[in-house]
TrEMBL record, chains B, E:
GO terms for cellular component: membrane. PANTHER family: ABC TRANSPORTER I FAMILY MEMBER 10 (PTHR43514), MOLYBDENUM IMPORT ATP-BINDING PROTEIN MODC 2 (PTHR43514:SF10). It comes from the Bacteria. Keywords: ATP-binding, Cell inner membrane, Cell membrane, Membrane, Molybdenum, Nucleotide-binding, Translocase, Transport. GO terms for molecular function: ABC-type transporter activity; ATP binding; ATP hydrolysis activity; molybdate ion transmembrane transporter activity. This is Molybdenum ABC transporter ATP-binding protein. The gene is modC.
TrEMBL record, chains C, D:
This is Molybdenum transport system permease. GO terms for cellular component: plasma membrane. SUPFAM superfamilies: MetI-like. It is found in: Cell inner membrane; Cell membrane. It comes from Oceanospirillum sediminis. Keywords: Cell inner membrane, Cell membrane, Membrane, Molybdenum, Transmembrane, Transmembrane helix, Transport.
């Protein structure tokens, strides 16, 4: 059995661990998973990190790597599409239409930083559609976490009344109330992956990529809360 | 008796157990070998030994009892530590001002400039302690303590590392202070010279206990105490100074038990001078003849080794003072070639240390009347 | 040459404000604690000493998370404050200050404790015999003699407050103009691959801290030379 | 009751290894530097003192980023080492140690410097007149008298190495079994919303550090009591 | 002359400028007022003053010159600091072993137990410095320095805070060491008693400069130096001790310039006793009659205040020693009632301080032959 070194954006870590288990069961090969923020992983890869595969939380960083010629040509692909959800740990706070954003009695709303996190950027778009972005921003009620993991923590601790996180996270929570904005109200969150040029075993990496296309793998991803167009 | 104390301290290999009543004026000297507990006792009085168990009363004011202990900084005392201790971050001036500024103006009984001048610190005021010599540090520490205008002065070997000139400058000042401020002083020293010069009361400590204590005269001549067997063995005589007693040749005439005695004018303690002259130390007195009244009491020190005995009054010899005394007893001295003769001079006792050979040659016996010759300069 | 955005400027300003306030508060509050640690003979001392070092052990983000639980509206402290009408502390500048203080606690307590241990003993006895009350001695003797310890405490706490961001991000919420500090701004630049912006803000932070530190150490040295310690 | 995954265990082990190695190395290397800072009269001293505190000023991730630039295969140091055949230092345990040391530098240098300043002067003169060479004096006089400083330095550096993760994540690459330390593992748990796992690992880290610190401080105290300092 | 030194130091308000050649055995006492530079000079010799600019040569070995400075720890010296300085983290035993262990066994010239016993430290070995009294600390520091078996001993007021009993125990030990080890000693003290007892050579410092220096005898009687005007003014006479001179009554007979002099046996310096007795201090000599040979030279100290002058030999008086001397000159003393008479005793000079009145009464004049009476016990 061989070993594959995979760098994963933190929000996909849990799912990747599940995939890794299955992959090992079916092929015997092992995945060595390093997680981090997409930005940090990108910086590490540009500086020679010994990864075979990179699963980013966006499409921007993989594209950048492609431009820099750091990936195997044609290896960039979308492995999952993120679904944004407004979530609160309080049971009746969020209504089915998300009107709470406009009229609700809440103090803080947490989102991932729109400048560097795709979910944050999407959240901003939703807020703009709802027409509350400006107000929240002016009233300094908008919390910008470094990523949706942090947003989740802030909401879960009750410090922020609600926040925009990934459906993949909200799924794990039984409690609370949620609203899933219409996918058309924000540009799709394409989580892309690439095989790195410096990979020590490109063939195995390719093998894993094609294994991911199998329905069983895709189902795992979908069940985790990602939008997988082909499966629907 | 207004300093009443009773202290006990248990340490691994040392135990202090002291009950004392000390007079509320004059100098009490604590005497004893290294490690006998002198410093520890001073620290107890100052309130610095927290483990000390005991009572302390000063002038009807209770400083310590079972359940109560007056904090150190509220006790109106001055403490000169054995190892001169100054604030390293302050220069000499600020060190001296430290205590001075913390005493209310109305309560100040010494003058800043006076102390600075007397201790010869004028040129050092801007220095930091690390830039001072050992003796200079000691003088500054002395100044700091004096400048708090204390009502009780505790001094732990304050002159141990001073040269004799500095000592000669400072001793009269201390004598003056003690008289002028009616300030009780507790003084630790190993120097018999300082003892005989300053002490009124002597406490002899041994292994943390008071072996003996009492007025200076009595202690010095007590045959059971070690004072009489040191090379410095001395007696202190009570004399009267005549006001008209100043002679042409700078001698002063005293009376001791009805007999005449001459001492050098310079040795007359300052407090027998008019008040405004008290600060002039080291100036010859010739110009300012002392105005002590006929019977003003004065004490003179006679070292045992300075006394010469004769069976008939000698002639043609440079010994000014010749007293008629009676031999009380003759004892062996530590030094086997010497004997210690106790002499009765009226009510007072005087010691003479002379060689055994002289005892034999002169055939000295108890109760014999002899002449005690003392060199004029031996008195002070 | 440098082009700082208004957000950068406001972040720098908040950073300085946070570092100064939390350092000052910390020194004020820790001095008595350090004094007690230096002089107490109590057995509890060892436990307190160990507790003081603990904030360092956990990763800042995690510490921040626990703090958020505590200070947020549902937390014990935050809830209590809320009831008092003060408002909870999460995502506020005050919360930031508290977090920052907690995190720099060991850097302040330990040097002060060491300094106070050295500055005790004989000089305090001398001060007491010169009529200085304990408080008076503390101000006029202990403090000047512990200068070195205070400088170390101040420098470490100040520098650490500048650089800390994990906990601050969590508990402060990165609200521009209120709780967004320079370290978060730099972090964001790095994440957003705007290395130019990151370099620029980093340089400003590093250079100005460097200048400040040099001034502090030079002054300290001068004070030492005149005293010939 | 506790169920640690093998990954947790390996992370804990790497953490302890990292903290111990970097603390020991740091103390060894910083002692001479601190000595020089404490006793030099050179003007450069002030600059070095300020430089030492600088690693604190930048956010750890950013420091990690710059270190990555330096130690990575394209960096000045990493490239040079690569050419020597040693291999660059990024994403290796050695790189982790270097990063961790750099980051704890001020916590070691400052307390040692303070301790050495106090332990100089007269005792060194006495030691010299008693035939002790400077090195001999350093070992037998300065070191024992600076015990407190060493403990502070060790404790701060050790605790800080335990909790640091921003820089370590960046420069170490979070490789399980090699550079994944406990703080990153906890961070991952929090990010992955496995609060149970986070609490558990945090508790282990906090409790064992607490025990260790109590032992250290208690020993230190005992040493002090027998000496009646 | 084997310690040659030449040092200059500039400080804000003090300048040291000293050139000296000191003998390579015997005790050189540095004398001078507080702040005159004694400690600074010792530190220069030890190599502790880095700013010192100068040269130093010890026994043909260069310790310091322009471009070279032998590090302190390579200089075979022992230094007793003015403020007793011990290692606070070591107990007394380990403090004393510190230097002892750093000296090679073959080079050790003193015994550990000997020093411990003599300094009375036996019961203190387990204590830490903070648990010692001032005098105890000073004794430990003395022990530490002695235990390095130094070839040159520098002592800065090593007995300032010791009681007279401790001093009396330690002084003979120092005298013995100095003889036995042929060890040159440079000694700072303010005590004239220690000067006359220990010094062979005297250096008088004033404001950082050598005002005068020379052999003890010469310095003590030099009318231009302040020694003659202190209360402790003394002369030291060279005498010969007769081996057969021990009398029944514990006196020893000496010859000074052909005339007889008696001193107490106990005062005979230890080095005139058989070697195996040298360590027994404070025991009476009665049982161990000294075996000094007929002409063995010995020095005796005569304090000016102990000399009485007479124009005819007096009878019936307890003064054992009567020397025929010639009046050299009569000078005013600091004390206006006193005069200082310099007396020629063969080639030697002796001082007598007597009152002006006695001068007049006896009609003393220069060149007159008179009798100088000295109390036996005044010699040591
Ligand atoms: N902190 C301490 N712990 C234990 N023992 C101590 C302590 N301080 C002093 N001692 C012991 O207590 C005894 C008395 O000490 P103290 O300092 O009072 O002596 P002293 O009479 O002042 O002596 P000296 O003349 O040498 O100064 C000594 O045997 C000393 O060793
Ligand atoms: N570090 C220093 N910086 C500046 N001046 C100093 C320093 N150390 C000593 N001095 C000054 O140098 C002079 C000589 O000092 P030194 O210690 O040699 O005197 P000393 O003769 O030993 O006096 P003492 O008998 O008081 O110990 C003094 O005036 C002192 O104030
Ligand atoms: Mg004492
Ligand atoms: Mg000196």
């Amino acid at each position: 059995a061989k070993e594959l070194h995979v760098a994963v954006a933190t929000n996909f870590l849990g799912t990747m661990q599940q995939l890794a288990q299955n992959y090992q069961k079916s092929t015997g090969h092992q995945l060595l998973i390093s997680s981090g923020s997409t930005g940090a992983l990108y910086a590490q890869i540009s500086n020679g990190a010994p990864f075979d595969l990179f699963f980013a939380a966006d499409n921007q960083r993989p594209e950048k790597l492609e431009q820099q010629g750091l990936i195997l040509t044609g290896s960039r692909f979308t492995y999952a599409q993120g679904v944004l959800v407004l979530w609160s740990s309080e049971d009746n706070l969020v209504d089915a239409k998300g009107e709470v954003l406009r009229h609700g009695q809440y103090e803080y709303l947490s989102i991932a930083n729109p400048d560097n996190a795709p979910y944050g950027f999407a959240a901003r778009q939703v807020l703009e559609v709802k027409g509350v972005w400006q107000t929240l921003e002016q009233q300094q009620r908008l919390i910008r976490a470094s990523n949706i993991g942090q947003t989740y923590s802030q909401v879960a601790s009750g410090a922020a009344a609600m926040g925009f996180i990934a459906l993949a996270q909200a799924r794990l929570e039984k409690k609370g109330s949620r609203w899933i904005p219409d996918a058309s109200s924000y540009s799709p969150i394409m989580q892309q992956a690439v095989v790195l040029k410096t990979s020590s075993d490109p063939q195995l990496a390719q093998h894993f990529v094609s294994w991911l296309q199998q329905p069983s793998a895709r189902r795992i991803i979908k069940n985790a809360g990602y939008y997988m167009p082909d499966v629907y | 008796m207004s300093l009443q104390l009773d202290f006990r301290i248990h340490r691994a290999s040392f135990e202090l157990n002291v009950q004392l009543q000390l007079p509320n004026k004059g100098v009490t000297v604590l005497f004893g070998r290294s490690g006998s507990g002198k410093t520890t006792l001073l620290r107890c009085i100052a309130g610095l030994e927290y483990q000390a168990d005991g009572k302390l009363r000063f002038n009807n004011q209770i400083w310590q009892k079972k359940t109560f202990c007056l904090p150190v900084h509220q006790r109106p005392l001055g403490y000169v530590f054995q190892e001169a201790s100054l604030f390293p971050h302050l220069n000499v001036l600020k060190n001296m001002q430290f205590g001075w500024q913390r005493v209310h103006e109305n309560k100040r009984s010494v003058q800043f400039e006076e102390v600075v001048q007397l201790l010869g610190l004028g040129t050092l005021l801007n220095r930091y302690p690390s830039q001072l010599s050992g003796g200079q540090r000691q003088r500054v520490a002395l100044g700091c303590a004096l400048l708090t205008s204390p009502e009780l002065l505790l001094m732990d070997e304050p002159m141990a590392s001073l040269d004799s000139t500095s000592k000669a400058d400072i001793l009269p000042f201390l004598e003056m202070l003690k008289e002028r401020l009616q300030l009780p002083v507790i003084y630790v020293t190993h120097s018999m010279d300082e003892v005989t010069r300053l002490a009124d009361h002597l406490v002899y400590l041994q292994n943390g206990e008071v072996l003996a204590q009492g007025p200076l005269q009595q202690m010095l001549t007590d045959p059971d105490l070690p004072f009489i067997s040191t090379g410095q063995a001395s007696t202190v005589l009570q004399a009267q100074l005549k006001s008209s007693a100043i002679t042409e040749d700078y001698l002063a005439e005293l009376t001791v038990e009805g007999q005449r005695l001459f001492i050098s004018q310079q040795d007359i303690p300052r407090n027998h001078l008019p008040r405004n002259k008290q600060l002039q130390t080291n100036t010859h007195l010739a110009d300012t003849k002392p105005s002590g009244d006929a019977g003003s009491p004065i004490r003179v020190r006679v070292m045992a080794r300075d006394v010469v005995l004769a069976t008939s009054p000698p002639q043609q010899i440079s010994l000014l003072n010749c007293l008629q005394v009676r031999v009380m007893d003759i004892r062996d001295d530590n030094n086997p070639s010497q004997s210690l003769v106790r002499l009765a001079l009226g009510q007072q006792i005087m010691l003479a240390r002379i060689s055994r050979r002289s005892i034999t040659r002169l055939g000295l016996k108890p109760d014999q009347q002899v002449y005690a010759l003392i060199k004029g300069i031996a008195l002070n | 040459m440098w082009s700082l955005t208004p957000a950068d400027l406001s972040a720098l300003w908040i950073t300085v404000k946070l570092a100064v306030i939390s350092t000052l508060l910390l020194i004020l509050l820790c001095a008595p604690l350090a004094w007690w640690l230096a002089h107490s003979k109590s057995r509890a001392r060892v436990i307190i000493e160990a507790l003081v070092a603990l904030p360092l052990v956990l990763p800042p983000t995690v510490m921040g998370f626990y703090l958020l639980l505590l200070l947020g509206p549902k937390g014990a402290v935050g809830g209590f404050l809320e009831q008092l009408g003060v408002g909870h502390l999460a995502f506020s500048f005050s919360g930031l200050v508290i977090g920052s203080m907690l995190f720099s606690l060991p850097f302040v307590v330990q040097p002060l404790q060491n300094a106070f241990s050295e500055a005790g003993g004989r000089v305090l006895e001398v001060a007491a015999t010169l009529r200085a009350s304990p408080w008076d001695s503390f101000i006029h003797v202990v403090l000047p003699l512990s200068r070195r310890g205070f400088i170390t405490a101040g420098v470490l706490s100040f520098a650490h407050s500048l650089g800390e961001f994990g906990m601050i991000l969590m508990i402060g919420g990165n609200i521009p103009g209120r709780t967004q500090v320079a370290s978060i701004a730099i972090y964001n630049y790095v994440e957003a691959m705007d290395y130019q912006g990151a370099h620029q803000l980093s340089s400003i932070l590093v250079l100005s801290s460097f200048t400040l530190l040099i001034c502090i150490f030079a002054l300290n040295r001068q004070a030492k030379v005149t005293q010939i310690h």
